[in-house]
């Protein structure tokens, strides 16, 4: 076991390219079945994880301690998990009555299990569920509670200051390591202005947190370096008479809440889907059409909906999704519409869960006539209207997923709509299906510089993520990771920029 009585279950996420957030889960059970004759059960909880398919594997250090003669155990040893928002991380908590000293659990009495996702735990903060047997019957009256996530902060932090040079970043100063401290304070230090920024106070200074964690007593320390992703307030006092021997005083860090703080604090992520029904998709009855549903029940539109929807559903308590179509002639007037609910119920455009979205899409296809043009601005403005209303509530963030096959025909209006939406709690994800030229989508993504409206107004932030479906060859896991990887930072950066705290701030730790 690792220091502090924690069971390290830091399973790596295949294909994940971002540094994971480590979260800590606490487990306790109540009313467990009593399997022993002359005493009470001796329970232990084991953690299993599945990243794809139905294969489960026990994570490293994925067991709590055993508690003797107890039907209501509160386990001291906790599970440490790598959390990735953009992945569906399936977990299984299995409780056993330990009857022998072997490591194998197959010869111990099974007391029940809980299957859930890490996203469900994060969004609920604390879950209590009935334990189930292998045949899915209740395991007596036994329940399991999973509380989390509390954050695992790395225990031995230090700071590194880098100056900008012609050949890249160069280390200028490193602080001492503060051991076993969650609120580190480093000793004051002196560094010349020339060493720090070449004597130019306008030059950028990069500050990097370097973190160590004693993973277990038999291994070396693990070192992780990560650029600070929140603003630093640098107070540079220039004593002119000392020329190049000025002091740099690092003022208090600007405290910001993380994505997990907002989710744990009650922020809801509202997910809206917009589907392209323009004629360029082809006749849905033809196998060449992008809307053609294959005998096994799939097309690219459905695969994208499943991949993204299965991740974000854990973060919306209602599990209801408004779904709109655009670019089709719709009954009864047979006029072209660019924001019609695919269930044809304007008063209630919501679908229940991802299954409800799929069912509504299937029923909609034969009832509309694919037409054109491909206009994005109406649906963007539609969602932006709700985001604007929720701006002061700081409990709502809106994500618009646009599934499209082609070039935008209202580019100017779309640029204006995106720039306006950049000041709202809103993000836009565009998934391009088919083999068309998606140059316009790449332009809207604008990773290199902020998007400009036709009048020259710059977006407040980058809120558009474009992903071409064809790059993933049906790999739903990789698609969801690519589509959703930027969303946590977009959510937290927006609320922090507007100084909006999590709704339930009393239940959230102090910001980092």
Automatic annotation (TrEMBL):
One of its GO terms (biological process) is ERBB2 signaling pathway. Gene3D superfamilies: C2 domain. SMART domains: C2, VWA. One of its GO terms (molecular function) is receptor tyrosine kinase binding. Residues 3-131 form the C2 domain. Belongs to the copine family. One of its GO terms (cellular component) is plasma membrane. It comes from Xiphophorus couchianus. Pfam families: C2, Copine. This is Copine 3. The keyword Repeat applies. Keywords: Repeat.
